[in-house]
Amino acid sequence: MPAERPYDLIIVGAGPAGVGAAVQAALYGARTLVIEKGCVGGRLDLARRVDNFPWADEDTKRDGRHLCRRFKKWLVQTGVPTVNGTVERVAYSRGCFTLFCGENREYHASAVIVATGVEPEPWRVRGSVGAGDRVCRDWRMVPRKRGTAVAVIGGGETAFDQACVLAERGHEVSVLIRGERPRAYPGLVAEAIRLGVVIVTKAAITSVRRDGRKILLRAADGRSFECDHVLPAIGHRPRLPVLDRSARLKTGHGLWLAGDVREPVCRQAAIAFGDGVRSAMLAWADITG
Q: Which of 138, 118, 136 has its CA nearest to residue 266?
């Protein structure tokens, strides 16, 4: 056991799940710490609209960035301290978790909630590495120049949400879908069409090639598409620190995964927030016996 007093609870991540956990932990009076490597709200900062979160009033701005600001304010109001850092590894020994961060920093706790969210699935298409910075992780990487042609790869809500943002910025946007129809909800697809986004179905991209200032995409059926930048939005995978076997064995009895990092399908801010609250309740019950 470390000489210094461990926290009751450490929450890794300050997205919706992490903030929900912090709010609940503060109600219990638990000695809590939040560790976040980026901004409060996580990838929610990219969202154009969040229509299924319980907003306080009808006039509230509903973009993800505004919700991130509200989460940050809420987190500050809890009084739970937050430190900036990346948790690289979690271990467990003799009744205490140790969280290893960069620069030889360590934190210790009786319980841990990992709410680190997700990261984009890598786009493993022939030639994608050679395309360099013309392959963008999200809409913020696309240069803000009107008329730039952007091909968004994917048919889910993330793809269509980012396509709408790019269209509103004045880009010429196409959404290339592998299947026969979009997977995003109909209202979002209709909004994209209204903004001038071109939707192309049965376009399974198999290769990409950079030709001067242009990007050439080739589909499995032989069709080709030309653009200035390509934005793959083909899904997400959990973003986890290394969990030692000693820590993994404590899952559900000292260690909890919360929010998108454990939810394979229903990844929404409202669900993640509630799951964070749930995890903090279970953690406190475990701590207090």
A: 118
Tens digits of per-residue pLDDT, 233-266?
Answer: 999 999 999 999 999 999 999 999 999 999 999 9
Q: How far apart are the first and last CA of the chain?
A: 19
The structure tokens listed for 276 are 């964070």
Contact 35, 87 (CB under 8 A): yes
Q: Estimate the crossing angle of helix 186-194 against helix 157-168, to 10 degrees.
A: 20
Angle at 46 between CA 88 and CA 146, to 5 degrees: 130
CB 26 within 8 A of CB 72: no
Distances (CA, A) of 164 to 192, 265, 285: 5, 22, 44
- How many residues would you count in the chain? 289
Question: What is the pTM assigned to this prediction?
Answer: 0.92
| Domains within the chain, CATH numbers bracketed | 7-120+236-288 (3.50.50.60), 129-232 (3.50.50.60)
Structure tokens belonging to residue 49? 């609209």
